[in-house]
Amino acid sequence: MATTTDPSVEHAPKGEEGPRRRDFINLAAVGTAGVGGLAVLYPLISQMAPSKDVLAASTTELDISAIEPGQSVKAIFRSQPVFVRNLTQAEIDEAEAVDVGSLRDAESLADRTLPGNENILVVMGVCTHLGCVPLGAAEGENKGEYGGYFCPCHGSHYDTAARIRKGPAPTNLVVPDYEFTSDTTILIG
Q1: What is the model's pLDDT at position 23?
Q2: How far is the C-alpha of 69 from the C-alpha of 57, rounded, in Å?
Q3: Longest Cα separation, the chain
Q4: Spatial contact of 187 and 59, defined as CB atoms under 8 Å apart
């Protein structure tokens, strides 16, 4: 039998045979391994996501319409107390009159409140010394020498802007992330 060479049929040069069955099998195996790896990793990674009850506790919505000037309320945010205070004009003036440079943790009242709502102060109710809950949020509690908050554990005194003024606490009471969702409602977290 004689073979004829058809000039219209191109043959790959020797050593370049084009896609082979082995290449297809390799690609299929790698693809299958990748899909299998994702199927194994997805449950492992997704179990690290916070559960719905944890996500629900990650924010606190608070209606502040009933807080009169000069009053403070306690709420719970992430299992810790948070103090929300409606400052009077006298308390605002007193906080603004303090030389910020003389403070241990230099922050002005404007640094600790949101623009347009300088009268609403939101702070975590946890002393920055050893984590006790300061007094001063409820009616009749000791507010310390500066009219803000007083930690009975080791004697830290905070002013009306919840800034440390006296005692062992190294920093001011922490201001959590919060925003106004309406004129009378804040969302903490």
Answers
A1: 83
A2: 28
A3: 114
A4: yes
The reply to whether 154 belongs to the active site is yes
Residue-wise pLDDT for 116-171, tens only, equals 888 989 999 899 888 888 988 878 888 888 888 899 888 899 988 889 989 898 99
- Does this model's pTM top 0.85? My answer is no
Q: Which residue has the tokens 């948070």?
A: 82
Q: Using CA of residue 174, residue 175, residue 177, residue 178, what is the dihedral sign?
A: positive
How far apart CA 93 and CA 182 sit, in angstroms, is: 26
Q: What is the pLDDT of residues 45-81, one digit of tens each?
A: 888 877 776 666 677 788 888 888 888 888 888 888 9
| 15's tokens | 């050593």
Pairing of strands 72-77, 80-86: antiparallel
Distance CA 149, CA 141 (A): 9
Amino acid residing at 30: V
Structure tokens at 63: 């209606």
Q: CB 83: neighbour CB atoms within 10 A?
A: 23
In angstroms, the CA 165 to CA 33 distance is 62
Q: Which of 11, 129, 154, 157 is catalytic?
A: 154
